[in-house]
Amino acid sequence: MIFRLSKLNSCRRTTKFYCSTTSTNSVQVPKKSLQQRLKEHLKALVNDYKEVFVDCGRYVKEHPLKSGLWFSIGAAFLTCQSLNPSENTFRARVIEKSNELIFIGKSARNPEAEEHLQNIESYYNENQILRLSFGLFSVILRNFKSSRCDSFKENCSYIQPSYAEIVRNHIIDFGFLNKWWIFDRKMLDFDINPNEWKENNKQ
């Protein structure tokens, strides 16, 4: 029993000696410079991107039809996003057609196209034109609120238009693929008055 206790005490002394020596004589790792750390980081980043491209190439070879479909969807998405028309293009289109309509006689003007242009100009004068962008397409709305007027009609929640009324009466145009579809359709025959042809046929 005494032999075991002495052996245990000797083991404790050697353990304490080992811990003290390791704590005092610890190995210090040299610090890396900022340039070395940046170089290692860039190298790891390049290797990660390289593995991603290799995996993508392998996936395209193994699934050509599925990959082609995804690439087509992505290309269509980016094309629609890049060709999403802005409000400036809509305003420029309105001014262009208004200038062209001036040089057409009153009797030869299309009354529907002329009324549409006059309504848009009145909305701009009242500061009621609002463009909403949805990424792939845009919508031009007639805003029932104006920043220049703060009346009771614009603040009362009981007489605000519903979503159905906004869709039916407040949507002015729909922009997609760098084109304003409703405006271009209404301005297609802006220099032809159908009523004039009807009167000539009656005579």
From TrEMBL:
One of its GO terms (cellular component) is TIM22 mitochondrial import inner membrane insertion complex. One of its GO terms (biological process) is protein insertion into mitochondrial inner membrane. Pfam families: Tim29. This is Uncharacterized protein.
